[in-house]
């Protein structure tokens, strides 16, 4: 996969004679990326490039100038969402207590799932071809979850026996049963129940298995 900056754009070489993109070009690209994300998130089937251009209020040529292929647009949206999840874990911990940060991160995860729904066919083809590495994404997401879990344990807010894999599997299960968009209320209820199960309730080890035979 080509190296990309944190917003999904290809890296700009530091070599002589290579100029960085103009500020207005970067803003235009970011705006197109935001619109594409919103369209993918609300779509039942994969929207056409023309639909995305229309929603962004630009001509199709402008969209293709920034994203020459559907795959390049899908890749940029996908990478941008992964970055939102990985950096979002640290940012949320800087703003909220660990338990509240975890609950908000779950909402971000749901938004990521919703965005994938609108570009699923292209995304799966890119994973199969090796253009997107699923294993790397999984590692990054598990690291983000672990970051919040570790902070929660240190603060005495989250259980000590829960792993990042546990949380990831639970989230995938919830959003598989109640996929976004359209099931936000039901998914939110299950996410709240999951969070209740993750909390230590101020008693470290209170969720550890107990020997009831003694």
Account of the 3D structure:
- It is a single chain.
- The chain has 214 residues and is mainly α.
- Helices cover 66% and strands 0% of the residues.
- Helix 2 crosses helix 3 (60-66), helix 7 (134-154) crosses helix 8 and helix 8 runs antiparallel to helix 9 (184-198).
- The longest helix has 26 residues, at 70-95.
- It is elongated, with a radius of gyration of 20 Å.
- Mean pLDDT is 84; it is low at 1-16 and 202-214.
H/E series: HHHHHHHHH
- Could you give the distance between the termini? 57 Å
What percent of residues are in strands? Answer: under 5%
Q: Output the structural class.
A: mainly alpha
The low-confidence runs, each spanning 5 or more residues with pLDDT under 50, are 1-16, 202-214
**Residues in helix, %:** 55-70%
The average pLDDT score comes to 84
């Amino acid at each position: 996969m080509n190296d990309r900056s944190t917003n999904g754009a290809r890296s700009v070489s530091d070599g002589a004679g290579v100029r960085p993109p103009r500020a207005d070009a970067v803003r235009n690209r970011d705006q197109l990326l935001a619109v594409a994300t919103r369209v993918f998130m609300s779509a039942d089937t994969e929207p056409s490039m023309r639909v995305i251009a229309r929603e962004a209020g630009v001509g199709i040529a402008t969209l293709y100038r920034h994203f020459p292929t559907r795959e390049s647009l899908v890749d940029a949206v996908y990478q941008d969402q992964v970055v939102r999840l990985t950096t979002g874990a640290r940012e949320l911990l800087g703003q909220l207590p660990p338990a509240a940060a975890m609950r908000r991160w779950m909402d971000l995860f749901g938004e990521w799932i919703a965005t994938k729904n609108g570009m699923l066919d292209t995304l799966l083809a890119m994973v199969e071809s090796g253009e997107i590495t699923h294993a790397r994404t999984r590692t990054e997401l598990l690291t983000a979850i672990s970051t919040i879990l570790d902070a929660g344990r240190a603060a005495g807010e989250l259980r000590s026996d829960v792993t990042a894999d546990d949380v990831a599997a639970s989230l995938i299960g919830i959003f598989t049963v109640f996929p976004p968009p359209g099931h936000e209320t039901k998914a939110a209820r299950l996410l709240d129940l999951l969070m209740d199960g993750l909390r230590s309730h101020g008693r470290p080890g209170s969720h550890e298995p107990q020997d009831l035979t003694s």
